[in-house]
Write a structure and sequence with these properties.
The complex is a heterodimer of chains A (141) and B (167). Chain A has 141 residues and is mainly beta. Chain A has 1 helix and 10 strands, in the order βββββαβββββ. In chain A, strands 8-1-2-10-9 form a 5-stranded mixed sheet, with no helix packed on it. In chain A, a hairpin with a 2-residue loop joins β4 and β5. Chain B is mostly beta strands. Chain B is 8% helix and 46% strand. In chain B, the strands form 3 sheets. In chain B, strands 10-1-2-13-12-11 form a 6-stranded mixed sheet. The termini of chain B are far apart. Classes of the chains: A mainly beta (141), B mainly beta (167). The interface between A and B is medium-sized, with 31 and 33 residues.
Chain lengths: 141, 167
């Protein structure tokens, strides 16, 4: 049963996957910023970057969302980082590129177990995963 | 030095760059310690407890010699030996250059870091400054008993036990 509609999402490509991030939560798109690695954080956290004087944790969306990684994606570094508001904090979300802003199609519940996917839809013949930025932070869900 | 400035010891360990308040430090030893030696270190005729930070931060062991920082610590010895990959400098930290730990990272790092220090370094060739982010270590997170937090190790538990594996 279709149950959810999200208006205005930034459509990002992450490997062969499409991920949607609510546009009203996106504050900036950074191209290859410096990352500082951190010890003892979840595997999905690639480190922190500085944005407007704040330390922003940066997450690998494939790992944070438990997305399958095609063989030809492995080892590739993402090109951009979306700075977005996740609950009360700013986070950076790694993607290969930001494609455009769309109104998301009607969403179905996710077909796989991920605490951070709000729903799935189809766009351009591909599966779109819309991120749930009100879910618990990565590594804590 | 004003009240908003503190001396910190800068050191590195694997890919991580740390800063540690100098008041936590008793001595940076000229002598070096064999990484493969026992779990105590010899300091001024005493055997001190010893902490291998590479192990604590889940870094693979390396062979050879490494600098030793003697820290204040609770317990009968009152000191603790900490092995690092390299001591870089003693620097002046301005409090207004410290940023807080982001909320999503506090459960993982809150017991061990006070925040991040945005260190500005001059770049001679370009006449500009380069910003380096240092992990600001809590001294009591090393030698003392940090307050237990979700996702953090209990005192005495290897730090690695709480690390890795989470998406």
């Amino acid at each position: 049963m279709r149950h959810d509609v999200v208006e205005g999402i930034a459509l990002a490509r992450v490997g062969a996957q499409l991920v949607g991030v609510e546009m009203e939560r996106v504050l900036a798109v950074l191209e290859r910023p410096d990352l500082t690695p951190l010890p003892c954080v979840p595997a999905s956290c690639k480190g922190i970057t500085l944005w407007q004087g704040q330390a922003v944790p940066v997450y690998d969306l494939k790992k944070a969302l438990y997305l399958p990684a095609p063989e030809d994606d492995k080892g590739k570094e993402e090109e951009v980082i979306l700075v977005a508001r996740w609950r009360h904090a700013l986070v950076g979300l790694c993607a290969d590129e930001v494609l455009r802003v769309i109104d998301a199609p009607p969403l179905d519940p996710p077909t796989f177990d991920s605490p951070h996917v709000r729903g799935e839809g189809t766009i351009d013949g591909k599966v779109l995963y819309v991120l749930d930025l009100d879910s618990e932070y990565p590594g804590l869900a | 030095m004003s009240q908003t400035e503190h001396l910190v010891v800068l050191f590195h360990l694997g890919p991580y760059r740390f800063a540690l308040a100098s008041e936590e430090v008793i001595e940076i030893c000229d002598g070096r310690r064999d990484r493969e030696a026992a779990l105590t270190c010899r300091y001024r005729g005493r055997d001190l407890p010893f902490l291998d930070l590479r192990q604590r931060f889940s870094l693979p062991p390396v062979q050879g010699w490494a600098p030793l920082i003697i820290l204040k610590a609770p317990g009968p010895e009152g000191a603790l030996g900490v092995q690092v990959d390299g001591v870089e400098a003693i620097a002046l930290l301005r409090a207004d250059a410290v940023v807080d730990l982001p909320e999503p990272l506090r459960p993982f790092l809150g017991a061990h870091l006070d925040g991040f220090w945005i260190q500005s370094l001059p770049v001679e060739e370009e006449g500009e400054t380069k910003r380096v982010v240092r992990l600001l270590l809590r001294g009591e997170g090393l030698g003392g008993a940090p307050e237990a937090k979700p996702g953090s190790p209990a005192p005495g538990e290897p730090f690695a036990a709480s690390c890795g594996g989470l998406p």
